[in-house]
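Lab channel / #folding
Pinned by the channel admin:
"Please post every new chain as: sequence first, then the structure tokens as a reply. Keep commentary short and put observations after the output so the thread stays searchable."

First post following the new format, from NK:
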Amino acid sequence: MNTIITIGRQFGSAGHEIGERLAKHYGIKFYDKDLLTRAAKESGFCEEMIKIHDERPTNSFLYNLVMDTYSFGYNSSSFVDMPISQKVFLAQFDTIKKIADEGPCVIVGRCADYALADYKNCINIFIHANEENKIKRVMEKFDLSEQKAKDMMIKKDKQRQSYYNYYSSKKWGRSDNYDISINSSKLGIEGTVNLLISYIENFEKQL
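Reply from TO:
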């Protein structure tokens, strides 16, 4: 196994669970929110700062100005002039590359496909699902009413879309930006994982 797997996902599509299962199948590391902890340690930002900006672009000048007083780490003049949200993005960007350089792994979200665009051994996956299935999954996971689950799903996807579109040169969720895009509602989690394993194994033969 020599492949780095990145997973973009709609909220409620089971992208996280699918990524975990792929990592377990191949016996490789899995990164989602724990990537933030590592990015914080390696960049000098406090972890809370990284979490505040996690997959959320913040364009408010005043907010960035205030939050800038809490930042430290990078010291080049061009970096100092950047808004805090961009500094946090760059910290994550650097961490993603370091993780990929260490060997095969699964990375969920955070523009990982964009960060690793030059890596030939990288497969970029996008997981989406039918609205009904996503709402049901969110209701069960967070113990929410149907309406609250739907509102949460819409909000989270808007955040992910605006973050991805803001920092990358591509469009979030557009199939031609990924190597493979799958509707997890059609096959379920296990079926989707099995299909992806087949795809990855064929890809490995080409390396």
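NK: The two ends are 10 Å apart (CA to CA).
TO: also worth noting, The chain has one domain: 4-202.
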